[in-house]
Design goal:
Blueprint lengths: L18 H8 L14 H5 L2 H12 L6 H17 L7 H14 L2 H15 L6 H5 L2 H4 L6
Length: about 140
């Protein structure tokens, strides 16, 4: 039985979900609505521990929480770039960008493009776009 078919039973600790919990929730996001999550849950989960899971979810067009995962990837990218990669390893970030460019659809290649533009031009950072979901709600290429 795949995660997508199993019932999501909730988070043991929503502030620190496991990759398996996040994946199970992402395929049944109505089981625990985002409004029921802790404040700034997107910022909490957009870290190194869950970035690979978030990336896999964002790469899956069939994932109901895909746009949430993509939003978290925008946060992850901005956080890494704006801290000069003190917050996240630059190598991991680059690998994700390259994977999105090679295997991603338009949503993911746009994320990769925007991430590369922000890397080259950190002055283009806009909190609303990168951390509040602006680039997910109004998909566009920056730069």
């Amino acid at each position: 039985m795949s995660v997508q078919q199993s019932a999501f039973r909730g988070f043991a600790n929503p502030v620190d979900p496991s990759p398996a919990e996040l994946r199970a929730w992402a395929y049944q996001p109505d089981s625990v609505p985002l409004q029921a999550m802790p404040p700034d849950w997107d910022l909490l989960v957009a870290g190194d521990q869950l970035v690979q899971t978030l990336f896999e979810l964002a790469m899956d067009p069939a994932c109901p929480a895909r746009r949430f995962a993509l939003h978290c990837l925008y946060i992850y990218a901005a956080d890494g770039i704006r801290t000069n990669f003190r917050a996240h390893p630059k190598r991991r970030f680059r690998k994700l960008v390259e994977q999105a460019e090679r295997h991603g659809d338009e949503l993911m290649t746009t994320w990769a493009h925007n991430s590369r533009v922000l890397l080259a031009r950190p002055d283009l950072f806009n909190y609303h776009d990168w951390c509040e979901g602006g680039l997910v709600r109004q998909e566009r290429r920056i730069g």
